[in-house]
Amino acid sequence: xxxxxxxxxxxDRVLATPEVAxxxxxxxxxxxxxxxxQVLDExxxxxxxxxxxxxxxxxxxPGAPGDAAAAEALLPEALARRVQALVEARSAPxxxxxxxxxxxxxxxxxxRSPLSQDAVRAMVETGRSYSNLEFDLDEGVRGSRYDHCRGxxxxxxxxxxxxxxxxxxxxxxxxLDTAAAGQGVVVSRGELIxxxxxxxxxxxxxxxxxxxxxxxxxxxxxxxxxxxxxxxKPGAVLKVHRSNFRVSGFTEEVPVGVLSRFxxxxxxxxxxxxxxGLMLDLRVDGLPNEPTVASAVAxxxxxxxxxxxxxxxxxxxxxxxxxxxxxxxxxxxPLCRALRVDKVTLxxxxxxxxxxxxxxxxxxxxxxxxxxxxxxDSVRERAERLSEALAxxxxxAGGRVELVAGHSVVGGGTLPDGxxxxxxxxxxxxxxxxxxxxxxxxxxxxxxxxxxxxxRVLIDLRTVDPSEEEDLVRALRDCWPQGD
Length: 484
Description:
The chain has three domains: 4-91, no CATH class; 98-106 and 371-477, Alpha-Beta Complex (Aspartate Aminotransferase, domain 1), CATH 3.90.1150.180; 117-365, Type I PLP-dependent aspartate aminotransferase-like (Major domain) (Aspartate Aminotransferase, domain 2). Helix 3 (29-57) crosses helix 5 (76-91). The chain is α/β, with parallel strands linked by helices. It is globular. The protein is built from 20 helices and 16 strands.
């Protein structure tokens, strides 16, 4: 009996093929050899399984030699191609860029806000060289990383001082730990929200080393409810902006301005978790009213907390603005070092904030604001071009494309009622299933993430940058290879 596995070439023979030789020039030798051994082991296992199946079919007689296709698959060149695919798959980054065609502008699963070109340039420049992160160039002595965005934030928000940490949840923990460690924190029951990833305000309050003091009810909280909580001698009051949902009907809450005066009368710090970090009034774009950072500061809150990567349009960060005395206390808290922000993030954040000095420039240069501001007619024109480019390919596969009206959303836990009129390209994949089309879009050379609705794939160009349109067309066309 002949062992079919003897037909498998040895490691040295496959290593000598031009395909693998090229891999050795581009990738570590150990990675190439390990991948080659895996491919050869899989080939041996496949042959052994075939031999056993053949023997069973013949009542115990050995299986017949493999057919021509199987023999061709064992040629060194064929094995080399499999090694190449495996090496490239192992070397590909797990974090890669995708085209967001969902129409969700701040898509948390896709990294929230894309950065402006100004922010990207600043981050690259700072990341590839040394910087004055903690060095005072004027005095030639040690400086502070917390000074780099401080002046801009004070200028644009009207706050006395500012501090940047690594994210908004960290900012909240730092603020509560500083203001009320070992004491109670008063929060309205209507503001005990859950944010992304299952994190809840009560749990964050507890992790900050403070005790939750609930007041009011889910739908109605009055100033007297806060006054009654004074009996437990709390350390702070926390106001949480409900940025990811709305309560309507029989409701009541205490405005921030009123609550700040109440807190001042009783020497209690008011921490206002604003959330989204809006710097410009979006009502000019037809969206619901949302408090801006400047209005939150003007309301009198001692500390205002917000995210860098939501409506602000910058990198992930937790920004804190407010009274100089309280900001100084935050800086001295040992937790501040554990939550400190890195130089690349600071560079991108500073470039983003600086853009807001010119509101019109911010609307056009910060991607999140540009997407919100783009007119429905503009999106339709882009969708029409995409539809025309795809129609012949889809029709050849028995499918079709059409334009449908719809709504984009801001997302990212902001503006839950903020729908924006848009136009989408609806794709009936024809010979492909919707799931197959979506999978091909996600796993192609250019990853595309889209929505499925009514057994069609929907492409919303509001969240696709114009510079990505050629890649999007190519990715969609490649989903219908000839003969599929």
